[in-house]
Amino acid sequence: MKKELRKAVIAGNWKMNKNPEEAKQLLSEIAPLVKDAGCEVIACVPYIDLYAALEATKGTNVKIGAENCYWEKSGAFTGEVSAKMLADIGVPYVIIGHSERRTYFGDTDATVQKRVRGALDEGLTVILCVGEYLEQRELGITAEIVSMQTKIALQGVSEEELKRLIIAYEPVWAIGTGKTATADQAQEVCKLIRDVVAGLYTKEAADALTIQYGGSMNAKNAQELLSKEDVDGGLIGGASLKAPDFAAIVEAATKG
Ligand code: PEP
């Protein structure tokens, strides 16, 4: 399948920023700027903002996502929010396995797999993050790390369910650092992920999969990254908090 036939997806990851009032304000700035987008536009926001964000984006083409979820439906899991709770309030997307969750909050490949399973079971669409640390890149084991993360997270995911999954390649050394991977580095790993998925499923399934790049993508570098054959969109941290910058990335994805 050609890149043009795949769904391009630009998703913001707001991380731990914005209260509900600020979220409404930012979304009211973003929505008119992206109303003619030729790609899918998602804002993944803190749990506390979800209601306000869903309300603020009604009738627009901006979709809302959460930044994490727990696999059990309910119970004694203080501080967690389940995939079911997200689905119950109408949240369609969720980021799982972001490197900040893996680095600061103890997420492992095994818990990422359980979160993916839980989210898919509730009908959510998952943005699964994979990516290597700088030391791993320098050791020359990026392919091994990213393949392993992908294979473990996709354990038990059917080819049908794969249609509700997006993979975001996010080299950890490029997140929030201003150090973007080159377009060739992004392409190389996104292609590798597609090959891993082809090996697990079929070439058709892999060809249809949306694979994003994430890591200091901004209004200036988006066009070059997004022009690569296997880079179908972006997961955007810092630049998603500024409406004009986020809209410029959406514009770049619309052009392809
Ligand atoms: C992210 O948080 O997923 C991310 C890519 O952040 P940034 O764009 O700020 O590097």
Describe what you observe in this structure.
This protein has 256 residues and is an alpha/beta fold. It has an eight-stranded parallel barrel with strand order 1-2-3-4-5-6-7-8, surrounded by six helices. It contains eleven helices and eight strands. The model has no long low-confidence stretch (mean pLDDT 97). Helix 1 runs parallel beside helix 11 and helix 7 packs across helix 8 (183-200). The protein has a single domain, classed as Alpha-Beta Barrel (TIM Barrel), CATH 3.20.20.70. Phosphoenolpyruvate is lined by residues 13, 15, 170, 175-176, 214-217, 235-239.
Characteristic key phrases:
binds phosphoenolpyruvate, eight-stranded parallel beta barrel, alpha/beta, globular, TIM Barrel
Topology diagram in text:
Layout: E1 9-13, H1 20-33, E2 40-44, H2 50-56, E3 62-66, H3 83-88, E4 93-96, H4 99-104, H5 109-121, E5 125-130, H6 134-138, H7 142-153, E6 165-169, H8 183-200, H9 203-208, E7 211-214, H10 222-226, E8 233-236, H11 243-255
Parallel strand pairs: 1-2, 1-8, 2-3, 3-4, 4-5, 5-6, 6-7, 7-8
Helix pairs in contact: 1-2, 1-11, 5-7, 7-8
